[in-house]
Amino acid sequence: MIGRDITSTKTGPLLSALFLFVLVVLAVLAGCGQDKTVWKLTGPTMGTAYHITLVDVPEGVERAELQTAIDAELDAVNQEMSTYIPDSELMRFNRASVGEPVDVSAHLAEVIERSLEIYRNSSGAFDVTVGPLVNLWGFGPDLEPEVIPDAAQIRALREQIGSDALRIDGQQLSRSRPVEIDLSAIAKGHGVDRVADLLVQRGIANFLVEIGGELRTGGVNPSGKTWRIGIERPSAGQVVQQPIQVSDRGVATSGDYRNYYERDGKRYAHIIDPRTGAPVEHRLASVTVIAGTCAEADGYATALNVMGAEAALQLAEELQLAVFLLVKTDSGFEERASSAFQPYLESQGR
Ligand code: AMP
Ligand code: MG
């Protein structure tokens, strides 16, 4: 599936090797005393994998048929939103004439609307038109640059971006300048929501759906309790920095520590600040957001990662977003959580 996905953005040899590294930033913490029937479904999607845990599936739901339906739903998401499928709905829009409204599916319209809302709320830090700059810095279809981009190259591309050129009116999408959309920062979360919605439609109330580290929980875990998730400590493999308890919510993490390269001792990460045109440079190592949908959590995690710790926490308080930050210090990581995140923090076992 690598190469046909909407979220994998790397093709250089170093980056491909990095990408093979497991991308699960949020680990599921097993409960003990499991006394319920549990199904586990996995499969490839979006250049990574999905992992689904279902608890006490109602009678009449057939496992193979359910998995076929999940795969079909995820294929549908790709057909709508992938930049790797030339005839996806999104790519057809990217090729359409400037100024001409294009009819899009309700799902694509919803994701674009949400993206534009996050763009406005983050004062442009989150911008789904940033693709040309992502590519310039070696995190898109083109290989990692031989030479670090110069100011003139960055300036030229900055003129080609800006979500202010996008307009969504019901299911009609148009652009006033030739900007192109790339949904890498939000589509995985939307994919999680689509699978969760499908499960709910089939009467499955207890689930955990995860795609490449973004996840959504419903109901209870195999122990009959609230789902427990571990926020990973950056650059320490699978060590849990902070356990959280969360049900019926989307959870997403954006980190700079899995997808980056180094040149002359300097680190270049895949999160680009559209306002400078360059990779972000700050001490914020990971941002975890809990929200009603995983798309919202995913989009805001990226937005806040661009903004840096202080601005991120300020916006989190303003919007009452549940946000947890890990900030690099000289000796390790400092944890910072917004007020709305407090109820999810689990203190035992730390
Ligand atoms: P995530 O892992 O969800 O934080 O998404 C990161 C991906 O989003 C990157 O690999 C880029 O393709 C894309 N991206 C980078 N910077 C931005 C930005 N400022 N706004 C929106 N998408 C971005
Ligand atoms: Mg994101």
Layout of helices and strands, plus pairs?
Layout: H1 13-20, E1 26-28, E2 38-45, E3 48-55, H2 63-81, H3 89-95, E4 102-103, H4 106-121, H5 131-136, H6 151-158, E5 166-169, E6 172-175, H7 187-201, E7 206-211, E8 214-218, E9 228-232, E10 240-245, E11 250-255, E12 260-263, E13 266-269, E14 272-273, E15 278-279, E16 284-291, H8 294-307, H9 309-319, E17 322-328, E18 333-337
Antiparallel strand pairs: 1-9, 2-3, 3-7, 4-6, 5-6, 7-8, 8-11, 9-10, 11-16, 12-13, 14-15, 16-17, 17-18
Helix pairs in contact: 2-7, 4-8, 7-8, 8-9
The structure holds adenosine monophosphate (AMP) and magnesium ion.
Structure characterization notes:
Mean pLDDT is 88; it is low at 1-24. The longest helix is centred in the N-terminal third of the chain and has 19 residues, at 63-81. It is built from nine helices and 18 strands. The relative contact order is 0.15. With 350 residues, the chain is α+β, with helices and mostly antiparallel strands. The strands form five sheets. Strands 2-3-7-8-11-16-17-18 form an eight-stranded antiparallel beta sheet. Helix 2 (63-81) runs antiparallel to helix 7 (187-201) and helix 4 packs parallel to helix 8 (294-307). The structure holds adenosine monophosphate and magnesium ion. Magnesium ion binds next to strand 11 and helix 8.
